[in-house]
Amino acid sequence: MSTIADVATRAGVSKATASRALSGRGYVSEETRQRVAAAAQELSYVAHSSAMSLATGRTQTVGVVMPHVSRWFFGEVLEGIQAALLEHGLDLTLYDARPGTETRRRVFEDFLARRRFDGVIAVGLEPAESELDALLALGKPVVSVIGTEGDTSLVTLDDAHATALATAHLVELGHRRIAFLGGTDATRWPHVESERYAGYESEMRRAGLAAEISRVPAELSMPAGYAAAVDLLSDPASRPTGIVAACDDVAIGAIIAARRLGILVPSALSVVGIDDHVNAEMFALTTLRQVPHEQGRAAVELLLRHIEDPEADTVTMRIKPRMVVRGTTAGAPGHSSVAVRDSTLSRRD
């Protein structure tokens, strides 16, 4: 069986050059790349990951750390990461590090330090300095999906833009009493929820509705959204006619609460979410679509850039959401505006 050394000898180049030419990573002139490819074909050479590692000093492996593999957003991000890594011929080692568990502590304090990676993608990293420090201490490139700017390159939804669009949609439909539902002081990702609230607040002020600004705290889950919405909607004199929810789960909880209270959606209450996750279509939810699969792919491309150039500056990639108008928004009671539904927008791409 031919080796990378045989290919290099046949092509008249070093093993490292032959490896770069065959992997497509690192600069090699086109003429050299073609010569190496021809030599590999003549020798029926098939690259082996261990041989590639010896030749390049790389493991051809990327570590991925995330808190909830089974949840929709994280599962979609993981699929995107895996697809992009496979296209580049790279392996993946996954750590399901659930928040608050002994397993998570061991992942950051022990397992990551023992394994060799070319880089790490951290998905939903909580704002704990010890965890970020543990990743940076590996001395390898790190890219975050959801996180704070500065220490690592970041791929995230433009959260403030999303809620500004959601709020503007309700304002255009004639709503004035619009509440923001979701977020707590003890949230795991305060930067996400604070930006989403900031987008809502900014748009309300821009529309001259500062006096109507209202935030109702709730964990980012369907049961929490339901419980908070029951309290919010119980008083007919003060209830809003529109809700901007911090995520789709909270929005769906609010819709269920409204139905149980006998409040018609959307004729008496309009609701907008953020995500467009798998249950959004079932509830005909108007929402801002983020595409976590593409966030995963973008994280891989950023990581490869940092692997090739460890001195490259960190980058923040904010992905713009797309509004999907379905059946949970309509003109405010007594207002002539109606929601215009575009079936091409409500179909998942």
UniProtKB/TrEMBL annotation:
Residues in HTH lacI-type domain copies: 2-56
Pfam families referenced in this protein's UniProt entry, alphabetically: LacI (PF00356), Peripla_BP_3 (PF13377)
UniProt-recorded name of the protein: DNA-binding LacI/PurR family transcriptional regulator
Lineage: Bacteria, Bacillati, Actinomycetota, Actinomycetes, Micrococcales
Stored InterPro entries: HTH_LacI, LacI/GalR-like_sensor, Lambda_DNA-bd_dom_sf, Peripla_BP_I
Biological source species: Microbacterium paludicola
Region (Disordered): 327-349
Source domain of life: Bacteria
Keyword annotations: DNA-binding, Transcription, Transcription regulation
GO molecular function: DNA binding
